[in-house]
Amino acid sequence: MSTKTVRDYIRTISDFPEPGIKFRDVTTLLADPRGFRMCVDQLLHLFTGQKIEKVVALDARGFILGGAIAHQLGLGFVPIRKKGKLPGPTLSQDYDLEYGSAVMEIHEDALVAGERVLLVDDLLATGGTAEAGVKLIERLGGDIVGCGFVIDLPDLGGRARLEGLGLRVEALCSFEGD
Ligand SMILES: O=P(O)(O)OC[C@H]1O[C@H](OP(=O)(O)OP(=O)(O)O)[C@H](O)[C@@H]1O
Ligand SMILES: Nc1ncnc2[nH]cnc12
User: Fold this and answer.
1) Which of 45, 46, 55, 11 shows the shortest CA–CA distance to 30?
2) Is position 98 annotated as part of the catalytic site?
3) What is the 3-state secondary structure (H, E, C) of 60-117?
4) Residue 126 · residue 158 · CB < 8 Å
5) What residues form DSSP beta bridges with 171?
6) Which ligand has the minimum distance to the alpha carbon of residue 121?
7) Which CATH number fits domain 49-174: 3.30.300.180, 3.40.50.880, 3.40.1080.10, 3.40.50.2020?
8) pTM for this structure?
9) Ligand 1 centroid distance, CA of 112 (Å)
10) Separation of 129 CA from ligand 1 center, angstroms?
């Protein structure tokens, strides 16, 4: 019987997209039927018993997980997209990345004030992307139940940043000190 964990399915590629970055690649996790199911089931399990009304996920890798989680919970899904991709009226939020900076957007009518939201992405590094998502959700009046990630890179400070905002942060595995 296989004892592979979610972490075991993740591939590391050095010097992508820039020299010095160790890219933690979830495509190898998602391509494996057991790996994909395992990570969706484990994320769901972490939030069992919580009242969640919408699943919001971050462009682009977060959509794969967020869509599967929303489907499994029978909930609606809301995308937070990189600038210029959403067709309707949007709110925008600047953010910094481990390698660059960008703008995220959400449709103005994507959430009802007070709606209880689970925020999902594949990976937490500096937390800049997730914090932009948090700000957009909160600007629409959303109430964030928690933030779920497959991978945490704690050395980059994202978990501390989100927890400093009073948010519950859950990740299935971490890579640190290497
Ligand atoms: O915690 P941070 O330092 O903000 O980094 C984490 C973000 O970086 C990656 O997305 P990326 O911007 O590479 O976009 P992609 O999902 O479209 O590949 C990852 O999927 C997270 O969204
Ligand atoms: N090291 C990393 N690997 C994969 N995605 C990332 N997003 C930000 N940092 C990353």
Assistant:
1) 11
2) yes
3) CHHHHHHHHHHHHHCCEEEEEEECCCCCCCEEEEEEEECCEEEEEEEECCCCCCCCEE
4) yes
5) 149
6) 1
7) 3.40.50.2020
8) 0.97
9) 26
10) 6
Question: What 3-state class would DSSP assign to 158?
Answer: helix
DSSP 84: T
Per-residue model confidence (pLDDT) at position 8: 98
Cα–Cα distance for residue pair 60/63, rounded to 1 Å: 6
Domain ranges of the chain: 49-174
Asked if 116 is an active-site residue, the reply is no
Reported ipTM: the value is 0.98
Tokens 């979610």 sit on residue: 6
The closest alpha carbon to 65, from 103, 9, 27, belongs to: 27
Give 1 Cα–ligand 1 centroid separation in angstroms: 33
Q: In terms of DSSP bridges, do strands 76-82 and 100-107 run parallel, antiparallel, or are they unpaired?
A: antiparallel
94 has which bridge partners?
103
d(CA 173, CA 155): 13
Query: How many beta carbons lie within 10 A of that of residue 7, not counting itself?
Result: 15
Q: Is the CB of 175 under 6 A from ligand 2?
A: no
Q: Quick one: pLDDT at residue 14?
A: 97
Residue whose CA is closest, atom 2 of ligand 2? 23
pLDDT score of 55 more than 70: yes
